[in-house]
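Memo to structure team: turn this sequence into structure tokens by end of day. - J.P.
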Amino acid sequence: MKLLLIEDDKATAGYVCQGLAELGHACDLADNGIDGLTAGLTKEYDAIILDRNLPLLDGLSVLQALRAQALRTPVLILSALGQVDDRICGLNAGGDDYLTKPFSFHELIARLSAIIRRGEGSTTPPRVRRVADLELDLLTRVGRRGDRRIEFSNKEFQLLDYFLRHVGQVITRTMLIEAAWDYSFDPGTNLVDVHISRLRAKLEAEGEAPLLHTIRGAGYRLDAC
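Reply from structure team:
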């Protein structure tokens, strides 16, 4: 999953981001309402985790502004304001769920999965990306190609998820580094090449058509051509 966390408390933000990363999910962090609103309106996310008490622009104002722009991304409000009236206010403002602090990380993940499933409808599995005969279940992080089950490391999952978001597009090394390692620069190693090689080996068993193509001098492309 690609998530946006809008949270100004450093301890909470660090805890959530680390937990999401350990599960192989990508997480952008905004520590104030203005930056959070900008990110929510300009980038694509599977869900947004939103605190209510934020500097510059409060969480409910952020939420109302997102919904005013017809943004349907699921929003989980994560707040220390836990009275019944607080929860009702948050849900009426456009929140899909409300979790009070202190909270269990496992419950956070369960609630995120639930609001994403609701957004996708009732089909099973609820979050699947596909190209040709390859599919990736974003909740279990298990892939299938035909009848073959494929399991991925965290980085392989993040890379494949990114490719599946951009099927048919040429993806550069820099784009992959930012997506999977959160670097804003190329570390100058063969980090990407090694992981791409491992991912390709899992995606393309003997006799199967190639899906992950190297574009000389440009990067890589995932498609069935």
